[in-house]
Write a structure and sequence with these properties.
Length: 317
């Protein structure tokens, strides 16, 4: 009996040593410290755009700093049905926490609610779902960014001009908010939206829509695109038509290697930062897993980049 007790203590001591000393995820898991090791499922709506690749990289970099968590990524390849299935798979697998960046609000609302009902905390990142059946939403204020873009453009154009608006997917909340915010920002100015189209966040679609706008209108003073790939697609269309120098291009995202680089090169006149929230999501996940209360909504800041401030790293909104 005493001997059995002794052997057990030895096994426990070895398990603790392996778990604490190596700092390695496999060792921590193998040590059997079940409740000290957590699996986070991450449902990404697509990896077709650099911004989403950056979001996953930010999540991974933050998760890698913590030996007691692992993050499993699924890419829905811009397919809502696939993303719904991914959420259901994570729930059946019994992940400890789910992070989701949903493609569209309405169709992902129910699977998220089901995960919550199954006892899995859910962090909704960047694009919101409907209602409030989730644990925490993290994202920047899209309405504020849209409004700032409108006000900036009105000032830049001296309160008059013809604008093309290339919208993000209008079944997603950022698309709606960046649109309504922009209208608020230009209200009372002489700016007029002469052409608007849903380019679904995609550069090739933005380019096609801008081709149509250029064919229809002899005068276009500015393009407001809901993201930098959209603004860049519009720029390429205008350049092919020899009209890019007559037009002010404004985008959103401000990744260093994308929108900020476009501003530095003089392709875009302005871009507004939309942070990925990857690091904040992991920080919040750890707090939830530790049993802490977290705010229902975490609003991230934004920065404006223009030719005047790009060298200094932009300025806060
Ligand atoms: C990437 C993206 C970003 C945009 C965000 C909005 O898929 O389109 O460019 O800022 O999603 O949710």
């Amino acid at each position: 009996m005493v001997r059995r007790h002794f052997t057990f203590l030895w096994i426990l001591a070895i398990a603790l040593f392996v778990g604490c000393s190596s700092g390695d995820k496999d060792a921590t898991r193998a040590a059997g410290k079940a409740r000290d090791f957590y699996t986070i499922g991450m449902s990404q709506c697509n990896l077709g755009e650099p911004w989403r690749v950056q979001m996953n990289a930010d999540l991974k970099a933050a998760a890698d700093k913590h030996p007691n968590i692992e993050i499993v990524f699924k890419d829905a390849q811009n397919d809502t049905l696939k993303q719904r299935a991914h959420v259901e798979e994570f729930v059946s697998a019994g992940v400890d926490l789910l992070i989701i960046s949903p493609k569209e609000a309405a169709p992902l609302t129910e699977p998220v609610a089901k995960a919550v009902d199954a006892g899995i905390p859910v962090i909704v990142l960047d694009r919101a779902v409907q209602g409030d059946n989730y644990t925490c939403f993290i994202g920047a204020d899209n309405k504020l960014i849209g409004k700032a873009a409108g006000a900036w453009l009105a000032k830049k154009l001296g309160d008059k001009g013809k604008v093309v608006e290339l919208k993000g997917l209008m079944t997603s909340i950022p698309g709606h908010d960046r649109h309504s915010g922009f209208l608020e920002g230009i209200a009372g100015s002489g700016l007029e939206v002469i052409f608007e189209a849903d380019m679904k966040w995609l550069e090739p679609d933005a380019r096609k829509e801008m081709d149509s706008a250029l064919a229809r209108f002899d005068t276009i003073d500015a393009v407001y695109a809901h993201n930098d790939p959209g603004a860049h697609g519009a720029y390429l269309a205008a350049k092919a038509a020899g009209r890019e120098k007559d037009i002010v291009f404004v985008g959103i995202d401000a990744l260093p290697q994308e929108g900020v680089a476009y501003v530095a090169q003089g392709i875009l006149s302005a871009t507004f930062q939309y942070p990925t929230g990857g690091a904040e999501a992991i920080d919040t996940a750890l707090r939830i897993l530790a049993g802490e209360e977290v705010p229902k909504k975490i609003v991230l800041g934004s920065r404006l980049f223009t030719a005047d401030n790009v060298k200094q790293g932009g300025e806060p909104l």
